[in-house]
């Protein structure tokens, strides 16, 4: 059977944009799933592995740019797209044939009615697809009119703000975010450092209630409300790490405030 991603799409043209750094394990799967797009724009943050070499097998539109944060790097990639619509895909994601077919159908029928589409994401981790536990459907704007979108949010939770009507799609992106538990923990540490720093930039203050109750609710949401308990120990693990993420974000915010107080004390002495 022919792969619908490899046939010429009808309707408006599509630019796929991907930002990456040292993603040689994921990038081929990602870019292969985008071959149906009219162009693929890759912005690489000077990878030191085979990422760029692999990218050249799929596109000539490769730009190397120093990492500027998730929001700024993706906004830059957006600015380099030239087609009517932009499809944002992370390097650890894959567009399935079913999703590619749905996108092409929606653009051929509804492109004049909507300015953006929200895509669900389905995570593969710990040898299973996570339809329970709080990671799914995780709707996010990923397909949008190039001239009707701008970037907002804060790192590492940037978001696309679309000036116009939105519509949800049914078929999910496949997401291969974590290689293993060690990779998961490292990312939690990195992302909570970024998140706490963004909170301080917004002049948010540490509160004990945030550190106590927000992690507890995150565990309850993942394990009970989102039925993570049905995944056995894996569901318990995911709920615990979700709570740890929230706790560390506020613990690091507390630490940043301690450092600021020390700096003020040194300046006064």
How would you describe the overall organization of this protein?
With 269 residues, the protein is of the alpha/beta class. The protein folds into two domains: 4-175, Spore Coat Polysaccharide Biosynthesis Protein SpsA, Chain A (Alpha-Beta Complex), CATH 3.90.550.10; 181-260, no CATH class. It contains seven helices and 13 strands. The protein has helices at residues 27-32, 51-55, 70-80, 97-110, 181-201, 208-225, 233-268, and strands at 14-20, 39-44, 62-64, 85-88, 93-94, 116-119, 121-125, 128-129, 140-145, 149-154, 157-162, 166-168, 173-175. Strands 3-2-1-4-9-6-12 form a seven-stranded mixed sheet. A four-stranded mixed sheet has the order 5-13-7-8. The termini are far apart. The model is unreliable at 1-9 (pLDDT under 50).
Quick overview of this protein structure:
The chain has seven helices and 13 strands. With 269 residues, the chain is of the alpha/beta class. Helix 6 (208-225) runs antiparallel to helix 7.
